Amino acid sequence: MNEVTPVLLAGGSGTRLWPVSRKSFPKQFAPLLGKETLFQASALRLSGPGYAAPLVLTNADFRFIVTEQLGEIGIEPEAILIEPSGRNTAPAVLAAALYASEQDPDALLLVAPSDHAVPDVAAFRRAVDAGVPLAKAGRIVTFGIQPTRAETGYGYLQVAGGPDQQTSDLERFVEKPDAATAQRMLADGSFLWNAGIFLFSARTMIEAFRQHAPDFIAPVSQALADAQADLGFLRLAPDPWNGLRDQSVDYAVMEKADNLSVVRFTDHWSDLGGWDAIWREAQDGAPAPRGAVTDARSTAIDCDNVLMRSDSEDMEIVGIGLKDVMVVATSDAVLVADMNRAQDVKLAVSALKARDKRQAEAFRRDHRPWGWFETLVLAERFQVKRIVVHPGASLSLQSHVHRSEHWIVVSGTARVTVDDHVTLVTENQSIYVPLGAVHRMENPGKVPMVLIEVQTGVYLGEDDIIRYEDRYART
User: Fold this and answer.
1) Which end of the chain is less enclosed by CB atoms within 10 A, N or C?
2) Phi, psi values for residue 412, rounded to 5°
3) Mean pLDDT of 154-179
4) Mean pLDDT, the chain, as a whole number?
5) What is d(CA 277, CA 250) in angstroms, rounded to the nearest whole number?
6) What would the pLDDT profile of 394-443 be if each residue is shown by its tens digit?
7) What Å distances lie between residue 284 and 65, 239, 270, 277, 279, CA to CA?
């Protein structure tokens, strides 16, 4: 059997799981259901015998997060394609098909979002195996989930076969229904949830675009032809890409094609599209007493059907007498909402953006290719940060126009360059970086290096950086 190449879509920035998911670090990179992130779980689910190394499509902001998280689970990608801008899934799917076709026009590709929950990995792989002969025969295979409730948050697939058939032809796509329609479709038995997962050969998908969305072919081909290799990434050319229309592969191709088949998946699946879904997942197989789902930093007293979650070590949540409420806290924001309003969490993001609040899109912790930093104190003329640098990593050689810096190492060892002087700074030692000095910080050790940085100056923005040399090719 041909190996299946996973195509992991990891460029989204969903808002329905705010405040844990934000534009700067969205839900696919967060450990929402266990120690592994959703992205890592997706990559592991589609690895091993029968699967080739994955293709990953993401954006420039997430490229180093992708490589770091894949490295943590021991997966080496076939390629990481960097999208210059978000244009929905149609261009991404076509880019993956064109890329794979250069090596093998009949390569089998499995396109999957990287933020879904599928607990039974073996069952899912069996479903993929069932779709492989169809994909080899020139069908586009989509995966339909056996519905367990009248869900209004999903699109549906109407299939020709009965519930005892694992594979059948697709009759039509159905948009997200209202409650009454969803109830009728659930009772009908011929409707499945649309998981947004597709299996096909590269040749078949390229031909489908030629027939149904030909205007995508030339610009996506040009973006791939003019792509630039960059530190193990492949940056698609921005000019042809940015001119593409924003459209999903469902609208561009799938709803027009007549060669679609459906594999029915009867085991558990969730797109984790809201905090109500997280609440349900936490009780899969083991319902919480009175439906009160809590974590180690949350306490529910006389509560029914609640989700209480704190992602901050310093934030304890206590709920008393609550019902049908979700409370989600991070170090800088708290969401309190009716459980039935889970799909409206995105309204909180819009409200915060209208007030120009950082919490709408960014965290205190800012991830970088060399590690991360978080702001501990921010005042008018000074800022205090905690900085963590990965073993062997280094910040760029840089200077600042408006601020000076004082570094205190609290764990590990830093190799610090200040103008022409190179110094090893160990735990409990400090060094001063004057305004305008050309400087660099490196971690020469084998464990993470942690330091406290105190900035002083008239302007403390992250754009006050002049880079002279950077191993991560940032401009």
Assistant:
1) C
2) 85, -160
3) 89
4) 94
5) 23
6) 999 999 999 999 999 999 999 999 999 999 999 999 999 999 999 999 99
7) 29, 46, 11, 11, 9
- Give the HSE-up count for residue 387: Cα atoms under 13 Å, Cβ half-sphere: 26
Show the tokens assigned to 95.
Answer: 């880019």
Tokens matching residue 112: 């999957």
Q: How far is it, in rounded angstroms, from Cα 91 to Cα 221?
A: 10
- b vs e for 156-190, b when ≥16 Cβ sit within 10 Å of the residue's Cβ? bbbbeeeeeeebbebeebbeebeeebbeebbeeee
pTM over 0.85: yes
Reported as a single tens digit per residue, the pLDDT across 208-263 is 999 999 999 999 999 999 999 988 899 999 999 999 999 999 999 999 999 999 99
User: SS3 for 8?
Assistant: strand
Query: Which residues does residue 270 pair with via DSSP β-bridges, in sequence order?
Result: 117
Q: What's the pLDDT band for 475 if we cut at 50, 70, 90?
A: low
Hey, which bits of 321-420 come out as E strands?
Answer: 323-329, 334-338, 365-368, 371-378, 382-389, 397-399, 403-411, 413-418
Name the amino acid, one letter, at 367.
H
The residue type of 288 is A
Give the C-alpha separation, 61 to 247, whole Å. 21
Contacts of 337 (CB under 8 A, 6+ apart): 275, 325, 326, 344, 345, 348
Angle (CA) 273-343-334 rounded to 5° is 90
* Residue 72 CB neighbour total at 10 angstroms: 11
Q: Strands 292-294, 304-310: parallel, antiparallel or unpaired by DSSP? A: parallel
| pLDDT of amino acid 228 | 93
Sequence-ordered list of residues with C-beta below 8 angstroms from that of 100, at least 6 positions apart, any chain: 5, 55, 107, 109, 202
Reported in sequence order, the residue ranges of 37-119 that DSSP labels E, i.e. its strands, are: 55-59, 79-83, 108-113
CA pair distance 246, 233, nearest whole angstrom: 23
- Cβ 448 vs Cβ 411: under 8 Å: yes
Helix, strand, or coil here: 315?
coil
Q: Are strands 430-433 and 298-301 parallel, antiparallel or unpaired?
A: unpaired
- More confidently predicted of 366 and 401: 401
In the chain the domains, ranked by start, together with CATH numbers, are 4-265 (3.90.550.10), 290-354 (no CATH), 365-469 (2.60.120.10)
Two tokens, residue 275: 């905090």
